[in-house]
Amino acid sequence: MAIDLRTVSITPLRQTFGHLARRMGADKPASRYLEATMDLQPVENYHYRPTWEPERDIFDTRRTAITMKDWYALKDPRQYYYGAWTLARGKMQEIAEGDFDLVEDLGLAAAYPAAGKELALKVFLPLRHVAWGSNLNKAYVSSYAYGIAMSQAACYASMDQLGVAQYVSRLGLAFNDLDALAEAKTAWLEGAEWQELRRYMEDVMVGQDWFEVLIAQDFALEGLLYPLIYERFNEKLNAAHGPVFSMLTRFQREWFGETTKWLDAVLKACAADNPENKAQLATWIKAWRERALAALKPVAQLAFGDEADAILEELVLNLNARAAKAGIAL
């Protein structure tokens, strides 16, 4: 019996969903990101108002001083929807797990010089509490932000910070087992050099305007903290004691470099929308940048001693340059 195989081309009746066709025009194919993002949040026919805030709708643009002609202008340049985000993070986690396995198999953590171990634990390990606070603050942004474009990206960043907190804790366990975590908690609660940073985190946690929380946590604090610890402090430990610390913090460095692209794109779109946004963003950034600088100064002195002021000054210039690139003059 002969079987005749033929290729049949079927022309689709339409290229995309109705809500995207209304925004983009008919017969224009959309990416998975756009399909999973644009105009998906309910905007009308709410059945009830939230009992904890009856003066507002469940999704309400008035929860921030920022205004937008179109909240879906705050798109993510990484094009992360749930599937793409899980694939990207799965790959990063696989690499990070390989690094931890290699360090354990070769006994590199045990062989790490005692002086480097002590400095790393003293400066680095209390930061797991910052990562946990960051998880909460980003979850707040995700909960109250307007538009799926913003809320889903903040939700992914929130979950990422849980991963960061776990990787920080695992480094502590690798260097000094459970004692390291207990000592880091005591330092966070009682150490004089950590109290300003702890106060900063707690003040952000009770912030009401979700966009201001985003600025305080993601731009002002992490915009200084990550370059300080995962670039400068990492370089210092590498030069003095070898690359083990660098191997065990790879996830955080890659995460910050990638997430910065999202945050800068959000600020740029927001500032370009109207001059009031630009002025409000500049006010928030200047206020929280100064507080973040004061909070990180004792930590920088722990890490770098007399060089701390010069390093922080350089990091502030870099942060200002990021703001300027987004169209925000400080």
What are the salient characteristics of this protein?
single chain, 13 helices, 0% strand
Give a quick rundown of the structure.
Helices cover 70% and strands 0% of the residues.
Can you tell me about this structure?
With 330 residues, the protein is mostly helical. Helices cover 70% and strands 0% of the residues. The protein has 13 helices and no strands. Helix 9 crosses helix 13 (308-325). The radius of gyration is 23 Å and the shape is globular. The N and C termini lie far apart (79 Å).
Topology:
Layout: H1 18-24, H2 32-35, H3 82-105, H4 108-111, H5 114-124, H6 127-144, H7 148-190, H8 195-205, H9 210-241, H10 244-247, H11 250-273, H12 275-304, H13 308-325
The helix content, as a percent range, equals 55-70%
Computed CA radius of gyration, to the nearest angstrom: 23 Å
Spans of at least 5 consecutive residues whose pLDDT stays below 50 are: none
In total, the number of strands is 0
Q: Approximately how much beta-strand content do the residues carry?
A: under 5%
Sheet having the most strands: none
Please tell me the overall pLDDT.
94
Shape: globular
Give the CA-CA distance, first to last residue: 79 Å
Determine the number of helices (DSSP H or I, runs of at least 4 residues).
Answer: 13
Structural classification: mainly alpha
Write the H/E string, N to C.
HHHHHHHHHHHHH
